[in-house]
Design brief:
This protein folds into two domains: 316 residues, ABC transporter type 1, transmembrane domain (ABC transporter transmembrane region fold, Up-down Bundle), CATH 1.20.1560; 173 residues, 3-Layer(aba) Sandwich (Rossmann fold). It is 65% helix and 9% strand. The protein is built from 20 helices and ten strands. The strands form two sheets. Strands 6-7-8-3-9-10 form a six-stranded mixed beta sheet, with helices on both faces. Strands 2-1-4-5 form a four-stranded antiparallel beta sheet, covered by helices on one side. It binds adenosine-5'-triphosphate. The site of adenosine-5'-triphosphate has 12 residues, from helix 11.
């Protein structure tokens, strides 16, 4: 990604709308440059009139002017900074909102390939650097270059020969800064990658802490943590060191320049080409110019960091969705809820074999259809294709004779509920977790859904009932309770199509029977496609498909399949019967 393109994008998407505020901030930097230069300039008449000519009439005016100039300098700097801080925070918010928007709407395939820890690092550290680029860098660019121009004017006004010597420093400083900037850009990308790895590791520690304990892997994990932290430390150290490397370079350059100046000034004084008042005013201007030159020299580093961060962030924002719809696509209309798979081929990744191979399915409207088969056969994949979490390579899926690929995606998903075996809940109240299906649902509807899913009996026993916060992914609830909540959520959605990935874990007989009843209520007269693991579900099914290696190898009722399908018989004997 070219730097010019990045800068154009950042301007167009993130800073253009704050243009007026930036302009106001620039106006204050003009005041700042003027007042800073005035301070340096005023030393000339101050020394000449007050000390050399001993003029008593200006004894009050010049000090007052100096106070005014300093006050104006302070006020302008403060105001310019406050304006740019506000802009910076707005830009930070806008970039983060865009990143999260792109994540929330991303294709499932894209999410599969994303590194969650790296995303967190991008969302925090990288966005910081972009914010610096569009605020600090812009502010400093104007503030420092205008101040420098003002001070150089004073310097040239006082003595052009001395000023030319001082100017030698600028190309030297900018050369040093360019070299440092390049190095910083490279190391900061490496640092961000390490920060991402550490974030992901942290998420895994939270998720897998029971596993760590039971395998007694505390030491092993401590060592891994140390390794990740060390790697990050190394990169951070490198960046900090490159950053501070700017200081000795600048100090050395300043030293050389001051030495040359003193040497040359002495010569000029001898030749009567330099007055003491001019020299002091010149010196003051040059001293004041030190800060803007230093800041301009390191500006390149902020810009390099910001550009490197943008190269990581903009592609995330620009990630294109493959799963899309046309403007003209109609909403899907569900009548019977019949689903047909026609010659479906599908694979998750480019270079792999097809996971589903020329698959044909007919799922009866308003009835229950079971998918059975060994692990890895492709059952979940079939379920994933119906709400278009993934799109097939070729073939078609029809619901009530309408292709799901030519309908509005939201209308399709609105008609589908998914109850999966790994129940997903939010760290929120019970009420909000059920109402996730419909945030406008009344308390009465929520309670009814809880009642039909047999969740009400445990909810009533909780300290704050429906207002109880259930912890991250429902950590404070039992497996059976979580399942009932997710069924309540699906009941509230009232969708005509239900996709059910039946839990494999066994529950106690009482909970099991409640969950079966809840599922019975949820799926009654609705098109249900279930990855079946329970005999009762299989027996209740109107049709069973046996999947193997991404193909249908048998269909019919339980009884028919026991007679006709060896794979089914095998599956039944080994996995269902023993349960
Ligand atoms: N997100 C994914 N990315 C890549 N490959 C995947 C992905 N999900 C599943 N697969 C592969 O697709 C094949 C079918 O998997 P699928 O999950 O559909 O099987 P399944 O019949 O549901 O198995 P199980 O009963 O164990 O859940 C497997 O070989 C699996 O490794």
């Amino acid at each position: 990604m070219k730097s010019s393109y990045i800068l154009k994008r950042l301007y167009k998407d993130y800073t253009k709308k704050y243009f007026n505020r930036i302009l106001l901030s620039v106006f204050f930097t003009v005041l700042l440059a003027g007042s800073t230069s005035a301070v340096a300039y005023l030393l000339d008449p101050a020394i000449k009139k007050l000390f050399i000519e001993k003029n008593q009439t200006l004894i009050y005016l010049i000090p007052i002017l100096i106070i005014v100039a300093f006050a104006l300098k302070g006020f302008s700097l403060y105001t310019a900074k406050v304006i740019m801080i506000t802009v910076a925070e707005e830009v930070r918010k806008d970039v983060q909102v865009d990143m999260l928007d792109s994540l929330i709407n991303a294709d499932t395939q894209l999410i599969d390939s994303k590194h969650s820890g790296k995303f967190i690092a991008n969302l925090t550290n990288d966005v910081n650097m972009i914010t610096n680029l569009v605020s600090t860098a812009i502010l400093n660019l104007f503030k420092d270059s205008l101040t420098l121009i003002g001070l150089l004017t004073v310097m040239f006004y006082q003595n052009w020969k001395l000023s030319l010597i001082a100017l030698i420093m600028i190309p030297l400083a900018s050369f040093a800064a360019r070299t440092l900037g390049k190095r910083i850009g490279k190391v900061s990308t490496q640092q961000m990658e390490k920060a991402g790895v550490l974030n992901t590791y942290l998420i895994e520690i939270f998720k897998n802490h029971r596993l760590i304990k039971i395998f007694q892997k505390e030491n092993y994990e401590n060592n891994r943590a140390k390794k990740f932290i060390n790697e990050l430390k190394e990169k951070s150290r490198k960046i900090q060191i490159v950053l501070v490397r700017a200081s000795p370079i600048m100090e050395a350059l300043t030293g050389i320049m001051i030495a040359c100046l003193i040497f040359y000034s002495a010569k000029l004084v001898v030749k009567d080409e330099l007055e003491v008042n001019n020299f002091f005013s010149f010196l003051a201007a040059m001293m004041l110019a030190y800060q803007p030159v230093r800041s301009l020299a390191t500006l390149n580093i902020t810009i390099s960091q910001g550009l490197a961060a943008s190269r990581r962030i903009l592609p995330i924002i620009d990630d294109k969705n493959n799963i899309s719809e046309n403007e003209s696509d109609p909403e899907i209309k569900i009548t019977k809820g019949e689903i047909k798979f026609k010659n479906i081929n599908f694979k998750y990744n480019e270079n792999e074999d097809n996971v589903l191979k020329d698959l044909n399915l007919e799922i009866l409207g308003g009835k229950m259809t079971s998918l059975v088969g060994h692990s890895g056969a492709g059952k979940s994949t079939i379920l994933n294709l119906i709400p278009r979490f993934y799109d097939c390579i070729n073939g078609d899926i029809l619901i009530d004779e309408q292709s799901i690929y030519n309908t509005k995606i939201y209308s399709l998903r609105k008609n589908i509920s998914l109850v999966s075996q790994d129940t997903t809940l939010f760290d929120d109240t019970i009420r909000n977790n059920i109402a996730y299906a419909n945030i406008n649902a009344s308390q009465k509807d929520i309670e009814a859904a809880a009642k039909y899913s047999f969740a009400d009996e445990f909810i009533e026993k909780l300290p704050n009932k429906y207002d109880t916060i259930i912890g991250e992914n429902g950590i404070r609830l039992s497996g059976g309770e979580k399942q009932r909540l997710s069924i309540a959520r699906a009941i509230l959605k009232k969708s005509p199509i239900i996709l059910l990935d039946e839990a494999t874990s066994s529950l106690d007989a009482d909970t099991e029977s409640k969950i079966q009843k809840a599922i019975g209520f949820l799926t009654k007269n609705r098109t249900t496609v279930v990855i079946a693991h329970r005999l009762s579900t299989i027996l209740n099914s109107d049709k069973i498909y046996v999947i193997d290696g991404g193909k249908i190898i048998g269909k019919g009722s339980h009884k028919e399949l026991l007679e006709n399908s060896i794979v089914y018989k095998n599956f039944y004997e080994k996995q269902i019967k023993k349960d």
